[in-house]
Amino acid sequence: MLAGGGSPFILIPLLSVLLGTQAVAPVITTGLLIGNAQRGCFFWRKIDWKVTAWYLPGCLAGAMLGAFIFAAVKVDWLEILIGIALLAMVLNYWLSKALNWSDRTFPVKAWYFLPVAFLNSVGSALIGSTGPIMNPLYFSYGLEKEAMIATKASNKAFLHIFKLLSYALLGVLEPSHIGYGLLIGLGAVPANLLGKWVLERISNDQFRQMVYAFVAVSGVIMIWEQRSWFIAW
User: Fold this and answer.
1) Backbone φ/ψ region at 128: left (φ over 0), alpha (ψ -120 to 50), beta
2) How confident is the model at residue 188 (pLDDT cuts 50, 70, 90)?
3) How confident is the model at residue 212 (pLDDT cuts 50, 70, 90)?
4) How far apart are the C-alpha atoms of 154 and 167, rounded to whole Å?
5) Cβ-Cβ contacts under 8 Å for 184 (sequence gap 6 or more)
6) Residue 166: CB partners within 8 Å, gap ≥ 6?
7) Between 76 and 43, the higher pLDDT residue
8) Rounded Cα–Cα distance for residues 221 and 115 (Å)
9) What is the DSSP string of 10-32?
């Protein structure tokens, strides 16, 4: 919660070893559905429903396409592209601070979330989660702290529902995946409670710094996990 997302990057390597790479996306999706639904309930009144209304159509189409590709092929290089994108976002943020640019160098309107949600949902369906890649977009739109967490959590909850339905329809969702995902979701419950307590006690600037620091770490981890792809190439 405090990093604005990104817990999958802790879980994905572990699940890959324990369950195999093809189980990661369905298991992560189940667990994140529970965690995000709880966060959305915590800050229900802070949700920006205008953003969600634009997010949902792209989310639905992207989740279906991504799940179809997931059932057919394995796309290792996608994590590398997402990792590079995350680092580019952090570089833009740090440069804007160092050169005294506005934090909203690229103003974002609500309708931008439609195409971005489509691309994000495709990637999320393929690798399990794209983590904090959309956080800078929420910031540029003007959401801070609880509003950002609430809106993103509600959007993600819908995304994970669409993904699970798509996995089930395509025959790649097994009962064991749901069981492991429920365990992850139960672990998120006390973590969300603690995160909510801390979030209420930090400033907007501290929250942004924590988010962008985790975005940078996430980008490095995603690229590092696919180092074998670079070696083979």
Assistant:
1) left
2) confident
3) confident
4) 20
5) 11, 27, 28, 30, 31, 32, 34, 35
6) 63, 64, 66, 67, 68, 125
7) 43
8) 26
9) HHHHHHHHHH-HHHHHHHHHHHH
- What would the 3-class secondary structure string for 140-151 be? HHCCCHHHHHHH
- Residue 98's pLDDT band, with cuts at 50, 70 and 90, is low
Query: In the chain, what are the helix, strand and coil shares in percent, each to the nearest 5?
Result: 80, 0, 20
Structure tokens at 232: 């083979």
Mean pLDDT across 9-32: 80
Q: Tokens standing for 62?
A: 């992207």
How far is 72 from 65, CA to CA, in rounded Å?
Answer: 11
- Tokens 């205008």 correspond to what residue? 50
Structural contact between residues 69 and 126, judged by C-beta atoms closer than 8 angstroms: yes
Asked if residues 96 and 105 have their Cβ atoms less than 8 Å apart, the reply is yes
Helices (H) and strands (E) in the chain, counts: 10, 0
What SS3 state is found at 99? coil
Position 7, amino acid: S
Structure tokens at 143: 């959401």
Handedness of CA 185, 191, 197, 201 (dihedral sign): negative
Which pLDDT does position 126 carry in this prediction?
A: 78
As a whole number of angstroms, the distance between CA 153 and CA 35 comes to 8
Planar angle of CA 18, 31, 35, nearest 5 degrees: 140
